[in-house]
Write a structure and sequence with these properties.
single chain, 8-stranded mixed barrel, about 20% strand, binds ligand C2E, binds magnesium ion, membrane, cyclic-guanylate-specific phosphodiesterase activity, transmembrane helix, EAL domain-containing protein
Length: about 280
């Protein structure tokens, strides 16, 4: 504690903590109002086949355009939204918006492609999630086979509960991926029984693929593991041709990262798809 570190530390810490506290209380108030103020929007990052280069999906990523502070990155507000529970209505908004968008793209005559949506821990544990997703698919007319929900390993700690939620979600005809795979604190044993479709290799393993032989071992092992379990595998955070070459040589199925494209506005997706096909 600060006290254990001596008087000077304590005196130095308190004002700073108050500032942080005040800041986060203010941000929380703003976060609660952001939905009705329509300050959220989604951007979409393309995912391509490592073999054909064609777009196979997009990941929806949340953006908050704060009235006064401007653009606030998800890393600065998702944890707070999660702590306070506001993530549930925000997460519902994300699902509804992404589903409606997918439905619209299909109506425009684009070829079918997946739209992946990130779930938070609270959202995943919320009893209303499955009925909400079911209703939203019906209301938006989205083809369930185009929807993928991303969870993280840490959300699956309650194995029985997550197993039944995942099974119910899968019964809706959607797919499930494990995001940031390899960084979570969990055993691998759940993988053999969990109804998931895809592993997303965390970008921390991809970043130094060229210089770190250990990262190359981990990445190729994850790819082999995924394939032996009949799972698809996506690499995140691919920024260079050289990283892509390694991933392709290891047999990685799909690629996502700045090398392909940054997350882009929905209106730019049709053009991106046409260019890549
Ligand atoms: P994530 O789901 O792992 O998303 C990938 C993140 O990596 C995104 O950051 C994306 O912009 C970034 N990224 C993509 N390609 C590259 C690359 O080549 N290099 C680097 N350095 N970064 C790359 P973003 O959009 O800031 O999102 C951060 C995290 O916030 C996401 O990580 C996800 O955990 C969370 N998040 C975003 N949108 C939502 C949402 O709608 N709901 C929830 N619950 N979480 C979300
Ligand atoms: Mg994700
Ligand atoms: Mg990720
Ligand atoms: Mg991440």
């Amino acid at each position: 504690s600060a006290k254990a570190e001596g008087k000077n530390t304590l005196r130095f810490y308190l004002p700073a903590m108050n500032d942080n506290l005040r800041e986060s209380v203010l941000l929380e108030t703003d976060l609660r109002k952001a939905l009705e103020r329509e300050e959220f929007y989604l951007v979409y990052q393309p995912q391509i086949s490592a073999i054909t280069g064609q777009v196979v999906g997009v990941e929806a990523l949340l953006r908050w355009n704060h009235g006064k502070k401007g653009l606030i990155p998800p890393s600065d507000f998702i944890p707070l939204a999660e702590e306070t529970g506001v993530i549930v209505p925000i997460g519902d908004w994300v699902i509804r918006t992404a589903c409606a968008q997918s439905s619209q793209w299909q109506k425009q005559g684009l070829p079918p492609f997946r739209v992946a949506v990130n779930l938070s821990g609270r959202q995943f544990l919320n009893k209303g999630l499955v009925p909400f997703v079911k209703r939203t698919l019906l209301e938006t007319g989205m083809d369930p086979s185009n929807l993928e929900l991303e969870i993280t390993e840490s959300m699956t700690l309650d194995i029985e509960r997550s197993f039944s939620t995942l099974r119910e979600l899968k019964q809706l005809g959607i797919s499930i991926s494990i995001d940031d795979f390899g960084t979570g604190y969990s055993s691998l044993s759940y993988l053999k029984s969990f109804p998931v479709d895809c592993l997303k290799i965390d970008q921390s393993f991809v970043r130094e693929l060229l210089s770190e032989t250990n990262d190359r071992s981990i990445v190729s092992t994850i790819i082999n593991l995924a394939h032996s379990l009949n799972l698809r595998v996506v690499a995140e955070g691919v920024e260079s041709k050289e990283q892509l070459a390694y991933l392709a040589s290891f047999g990685c199925d799909e690629i996502q990262g700045y090398y392909v494209s940054k997350p882009i506005a929905e209106k730019d997706i049709p053009c991106f798809l046409k260019r890549s096909s």
